[in-house]
Amino acid sequence: MGRPWRRLFSNTTSLRGAAATIFALTAILPLSTLVALLWRSGHLRDPHAQINVLLALVIALLGFVLFQYLIRGISSVASAVHAGGDHAALAGNQQAIVPAVGRVGEIAEITEAFARLLGELRQSTDKLGDSVEKLGALNEVAELAARIPALSDLLEVVLERTMRTVHASIGSIMLVDAERRTLRIAASRGLTDVEGIEVAVGEGIAGKVAQLGDAVVVEDIETDTRFSRPNDPKYGGGSFICVPLRARDRVIGVLNLARKQPGIEGGGATGAFSATDLHFLNALMTNVGYAVDNARMLDETRRTARDLQQALDDARAAQARLVEGETLRALGELASGMAHHLNNLLAVVVGRVDLLLSAPGDAEPRSRLEIIRGAALDAAEVVRRVLRFSDRQAPAAFASVDLNELACEVVELQRPRWYDEAQLRGVTIDVVVEVHPVPPVTGDAAALREVIASVLVNAIEAVAPSGGRIVVATAAEPGSVACSIRDSGRGMSAALRHRAAEPFFTTKGPQGVGLGLSASYGIVEQHGGELVIESDEGRGTTVTIRLPVPPVAPALPDGATPATTPLRILLVDDEPDVRLAVADMLAEDGHAVAAVGAGRAALMRLERGEPYDLVLTDLGMPEMTGWDVARAIKARWPKLPVALITGWQESARSDDDRRAVDMTIAKPVTFETLRALVARVVRG
Predict the structure, then answer these.
(1) How many distinct structural domains can be found in the chain?
(2) Residue 505: is its pLDDT beyond 70?
(3) Whose CB has fewer CB within 10 Å in the chain, the N or C terminal residue?
């Protein structure tokens, strides 16, 4: 009895303790008082009184037990609530029955009330947790969107965080192509075969959302006919939601999410997306839309900047080529004029020396004449290099050329320089030829051979001091054939590389004339190609020759058989010394030569009916050029052969020019070239 009294005066007690205290105060205490009074009065000695007291005590104890059953039902409800019990546990407590009393209605009502309160509290707690989670996700995605500048990375992060927050199993983000008026998938998770999928704006669910800007929620994909389009992404079965991605007042894309299975927590009884999900996704897409639009504009700006930089680089390269071409053209015109006058002088020297050598005489004067002739022909070779550099038009006499054969020939021809001479100096030069199948090009084989040889000689000289490696390689490129010569020499600085193709510029000292690369540059341009020099100091040099593949009609081969049949030749040249030297050379072979100094004089002789087998005319003359003379003759006497002598190496400028001239020879004229020319006329 002591414990109930102590609980009476304590601050907190349990429901059962309170019930025991109440029972003690209302039943045990009065009964004890009654027993005490009976004892004092002596009535307790009466057996009947003792039996009555005993029965009262039994009835009190029985009431206490029944009262405890009643309190136990209420306590179990309190315990279930305190322990977080669910609705089923509370419902089980409401079936408790008090013995001899039956079911207590008030306890059942309290239980049902507590069950409803707990259910509502659980639902409110779940909603609050879901809202807190969505709010956290919204804040997280907003922060990430501000830190991720790359569009693709941003979309992947947004899609992953969004799917995780709303418990979606499949998702995609589609962006609007404003020009094509279509939607294309920019990021996806759980989808397959999305490459190339496009949805037109206004078609399907995604297209309608992009067009109207209103979200669409579908409870079951399998029963919705809008998912039967063959080009749409396959989201399987379950619930589906499509939300517009906005930036300002524009829809720039859509977010598609799907739940494969119903019954997902937070998705409603059927697993469909809830109104809370819709509100969250709308808010998220509105915030993310600005970041996505900014990232897309940043990507476009970077792409535009790259395109502009590429265009600027191309423009600079084109300007450099234009300036270089104009510089070389001006220098070429200057060199061409100089070469014309030199050729005329050399023609006189070579012609007179050939006449002296054709006459009998002592051996010693003849050897001296041979030296003079050799020096003049060497000078003529320098002039020819200048002319090849200055002439920008392709010669008419082109033939099919195999660049692989030329490369191999040049390497073998230069073997004494890169192998024998190097061995004598105690160094090793390793020349490797890497030829690949290439189509033939059209051009002058001798000129192209000279270009490859000139570049190879430069490479040999670059590695000559200490030895090294040279690689001669050919390759087929789109629309062209390339031959590159790469050496492991000391290389060139940028300033030296830019001047390498200038005529008369050399780094070889007095022994160099500075016409190797410049002449090669001119020859390659005559063939419609390009010569590119790549070099850095200490890293070697690579010279690449690129020639176009489209062929040009080849010319007939020149004959070299001396003619023995005397011809009647009309010679036209405005330079008296040249005219006299050529006439004497022709006369030495027994030909009848009529020499005149102007084109009109030659035409007057023909109009008078003088018969000739060949007209030999200079190109550069006042009043009438060689082309004018040839066209006039072909117009009146089309069967009369016309040959052109030129110190300019000028190509035909029109079809009429090509039809007017049958043959062309270059100054200085030698006995060999004149005899080959006459032989062709004799052969017809």
Answers:
(1) 5
(2) no
(3) C
